Amino acid sequence: MNNWRRSSYRNISAGWIGVFDSGLGGLTVLKALQAQLPHESFLYFGDTAHLPYGERSAAEIITFVRQILAWMQQSGVKLGVMACNTSSALALEQVRREFDFPIIGLILPAAQVAVKKGKRIGIMATSATVNSQSYPQALQEQKPTIQVCQVACPEFVPLIEQNRCQDPYLRQVAQAYLEPLIEFGLDTLIYGCTHYPHIADVITPLLPPQVRQIDPAQAVAQAAIQELELLGLRQYRRERGTAKFAVSGNPEQFAHLASRWLGYYPYVEKVDLTAIHLSHVSMTVPPTPAS
């Protein structure tokens, strides 16, 4: 990853690991990272003013990602983790060329795990991720014979962000989304959005019992470990690391909802992304992905 910049990257192990998503979904990635890298400190950003990303254009998402990464760069991150499948699909390669710290995404690590688990891979993801074809491409690059079926699930993120995870309507929606995947005969399901593991207890009973489920968070944590060790940036101090939280929307609302999954009520800062300067970023316009 990012081989071209390793020689110039500063060897500072004490910096933050920046993790970001459109909202609560990336907390699944944060928790996996904290479990496997207990001595690292994390800076989490939820772009709640702009969620859901799944129905946004590629140009909008790339703009949001640039602003978030510029803020993280100003905050002193040593590694960026794009804890959002939509931005990983549409913005990762673009912003890797624009920032001088390593950035990892979700799709390739998840694909590498999935092809070892099954032959008929089902993917539940946002509309933007599905339209990008990033998962089928990544999976078939790993194993050309793999069979893939994708389903866009646009209602999931709003329901999760509204704290409606126990709403009977969510089960009805999940059942409808899973129907074509079950007809396809999936043996492995990738949660193609970091919000979706929050409702695994709703999805699991609706799946055939033999279906394996893949949460990309675990694969990304392993990828982060490898990148940190390769760059000499892993923190080995004895004390546990800390975590800071920021959002672009309502910090109180995020803190209230996040406490359910974090197990504590976090202090959350509000950040105005429009005030972030992007003068150092090469603002090349990406091609519009085929729909």
TrEMBL record:
Source species, domain of life: Bacteria
Residues forming the catalytic site: C84, C193
EC numbers on record: 5.1.1.3
Gene3D superfamilies reported in the protein's UniProt record: 3.40.50.1860
Pfam families from the UniProt entry: Asp_Glu_race
Sorted UniProt keywords: Cell shape, Cell wall biogenesis/degradation, Isomerase, Peptidoglycan synthesis
Xref: PROSITE patterns: ASP_GLU_RACEMASE_1 (PS00923), ASP_GLU_RACEMASE_2 (PS00924)
Positions with a binding annotation for substrate: D21, S22, Y53, G54, N85, T86, T194, H195
Catalysis: reaction(s): L-glutamate = D-glutamate
Pathway linked to the protein: Cell wall biogenesis; peptidoglycan biosynthesis
Spans through the membrane: none
Keyword Isomerase among record annotations: yes
GO biological process, one term: regulation of cell shape
InterPro entries the UniProt entry points to: Asp/Glu/hydantoin_racemase, Asp/Glu_race, Asp/Glu_racemase_AS_1, Asp/Glu_racemase_AS_2, Glu_race
EC top class, as a word: isomerase
A Gene Ontology molecular function term of the record: glutamate racemase activity
Family the entry assigns: Belongs to the aspartate/glutamate racemases family.
Protein's job: Provides the (R)-glutamate required for cell wall biosynthesis.
The protein's name in its UniProt record: Glutamate racemase
Species name: Pseudocalidococcus azoricus BACA0444
Taxonomic path: Bacteria, Bacillati, Cyanobacteriota, Cyanophyceae, Acaryochloridales
The encoding gene: murI
